[in-house]
Amino acid sequence: MNAETIKILIAMLCYMLIVIGIGLYFAKRAQTNSENYFLGGRSLGPWVAAMSAEASDMSGWLLMGLPGVAYWCGLADAAWTAIGLALGTYINWLIVAKRLRNYSAVAGNSITVPDFFSNRFHEKNKILLSISAIFILVFFTVYAGSCFVTCGKLFSTLFDADYHVMMIIGAVFVVIYTFIGGFLAESASDFMQAIVMILALVTILILGCINAGGVDAVIQNAKEIPGYFSINNIASPIVDADGVQQTANNLPLFGDAGSYGFLTIISTLSWGLGYFGMPQVLLRFMAIRKVDELKYSRRIATVWCVISLTAAVSIGIIGRAMLPIHAELSTASAAENIFIVMSQSLLPALLAGIVMAGILAATISSSDSYLLIAASAFSKNIYEGIVNKKAEDKKVMMVSKITLLVIALIGIVIAWDDKSVIFNIVSFAWAGFGATFGPIMLFSLFWKRTNRNGAIAGMLTGGIMVFVWNLLLKPLGGIFGIYELLPAFILSSLAIIVVSLCTKQPDKEITDEFEKVKAM
C-alpha cells in the first residue's frame, strides 16, 4: 500500500469514526423501546426527514451504478431513469407524505409499513401483515446485497485488494453500525451522508468537465459515438466473449446505435412509480414530527434529488470523454468504477478519500435502512404480531438483531459474484417494492372502497409478477423487454380494483377512519 493509498484510507477511516460516533450518540435513546429504535419516536425535523429519505433511497448506485450506465451506453438509459426518479420523488412527497403521516398515527400508531397495512384494514388474522413482511424481507435482502457489492467494488478498486474480503469488511461495518443506533442514528447520519454525497458529485462533475476540455469538448466527444448523446437511441459497445469492450487506435469501439423507443422510455420513466412503495422513504413520512413541515421537506428532497441525479448522469458522460479507455472500466460491471477512477485522477489523495467517502456514505445510508426495516418486518410484524403476541419489548429487539445478522449473511451470499452489476440488482429490488407496495399504498390512502381482499390480491400480484416478468418474460425480448415494474404495477392496481369491487365493502368502522384522516 503506497503513500497515496494510505492517505485515502485515513480520510475514509475518519469518516467511519464520525458515523460510528453518531450511532453511539443516539444509542441510549434508540434502545429505550422498539418505537424509538424503529421509528425514532416520530421526531424527525424537515431537513433530516428529507435528506435522510433521499440518501437512504439513492444508495451506492447513485455514485456508481448510474454514472456507470451513462459511461457504458450513453445518455438515454441513465437520463430517462433520472427523470423518472426526480418526478417520482416530487409526486411522492406531494401526495403521499401528509396522508400517510396522519393515517399511520390514526391507524393504531403504526410504526412499520406492514403495521400500517394491517391496521388500515383492521385485520385480525394478520395475513396482510405477514405477506407484506415477507416481501420486505425478500427484497431488502436483495437490496442489502447490492450495497455490499458497492463496498466490495469500492475497497477492492481503491486498495487493490481481494473483492470478497473487502465486501465482507464493509458488510460487518454496516451491521455493527445498525446494531448500535437504530432509526435515529440512521436518519441523523443519513442527513450528513446526503451532504457528503451531493458535494462529492458536484466536485467531480466540475473538475471532470474542466479536465475533459470543457462542456463543448464533452458534448462533441459524446456526439461522435453512435447513439451515445441521444434520448431515443442507445450506444452499443463492441465486446468480446468476456464482455470486455474492444479498442482500436486507443479508442473504444462501438457498433450501430440501438433504438430506444417510446415504450422503452415509458418503462424507464416508470422507475418513478417505485417511490410509492419504498419502505425506507415511507418511514420518513411516518416519522416526521409535524405534518406542516412536510412542504419544506418536499422542496429540500426534490432539489437534492435533481442536482444529484443530474450530476451522476453527467459524470458518466464526462468520464467517457476524459477516460475513453481504461483497464478498470472495460466491462459493463467495471464501468461502475468511473466515479472512483475519476476521483483518484482528479484529486490529491486526501481529498479523493473524502470525496470517495461519498460512495461509502451512500452505501451505509442505504444498507442500514434496508437491514433495519427488514429486521423490523420480522421481529415486529411476524414474531410479535403473530408468533408471540405477548413478547416483551426487549425480546422483540433481540429477535430483530438476530434477524439483522441473518439478512446480512444472505446479502453477502448475493454479493459474492464480483462481476455483479449494481444497477441491475437495484433495479430488480426497486421493481419489487414499487409493484408490491406502491399500488396498495396509493389505494389505501385515496380510495375508500379498497378492502382487505383487494389489498392482498394486489400485493401478491405485484410481487409475484416482478419475478415472473424478470425471469420468464423479459428474456423473450420485444414488448416483454420493458422494465418489470411497469406491467407489475399496472396488474397489481387492476387486481386491487377488481377484487375490492367483487368482494364485501369495508366495514363502517374502517370507512369512518378513512374519512377522519381525509378531513385532517
How is this structure best described in words?
The protein has 520 residues and is an all-alpha fold. The chain has a domain at 3-20 and 34-42 and 62-88 and 111-237 and 249-268 and 293-419: Sodium/glucose cotransporter (Up-down Bundle). It has helices at residues 3-30, 34-39, 46-58, 65-73, 75-106, 113-120, 127-159, 163-211, 215-223, 262-269, 279-287, 294-322, 338-346, 349-387, 393-414, 422-446, 452-473, 485-502, 508-519, and strands at 233-234, 247-248, 251-252, 258-259. The strands form two sheets. Strands 1-4 form a two-stranded antiparallel ribbon. The longest helix is centred in the middle third of the chain and has 49 residues, at 163-211.
Can you lay out the helices and strands and say which pair or pack?
Layout: H1 3-30, H2 34-39, H3 46-58, H4 65-73, H5 75-106, H6 113-120, H7 127-159, H8 163-211, H9 215-223, E1 233-234, E2 247-248, E3 251-252, E4 258-259, H10 262-269, H11 279-287, H12 294-322, H13 338-346, H14 349-387, H15 393-414, H16 422-446, H17 452-473, H18 485-502, H19 508-519
Antiparallel strand pairs: 1-4, 2-3
Helix pairs in contact: 1-8, 1-14, 3-8, 3-11, 3-12, 3-14, 4-5, 4-12, 5-11, 5-12, 5-19, 6-7, 7-8, 7-14, 7-15, 7-16, 7-17, 8-12, 8-13, 8-14, 8-15, 9-12, 13-14, 14-15, 16-17, 16-18, 17-18
Which whole number gives the mean pLDDT? 85
The CATH architecture designation of the domain at 3-20 and 34-42 and 62-88 and 111-237 and 249-268 and 293-419 is: Up-down Bundle
Portion in beta strands = under 5%
- Rounded to the nearest angstrom, the radius of gyration is 22 Å
Helix content: over 70%
Q: How many helical elements? A: 19
Placed side by side, the strands forming the largest sheet appear as 1-4
Distance between the termini: 60 Å
N-to-C SSE string, H for helix and E for strand: HHHHHHHHHEEEEHHHHHHHHHH
Q: Main sheet, how many strands, which sense, barrel?
A: 2 strands, antiparallel
- Determine and state the CATH class of the domain at 3-20 and 34-42 and 62-88 and 111-237 and 249-268 and 293-419: Mainly Alpha
Basic shape: globular
Number of strands: 4
CATH superfamily of the domain at 3-20 and 34-42 and 62-88 and 111-237 and 249-268 and 293-419: Sodium/glucose cotransporter
Multimeric state: single chain
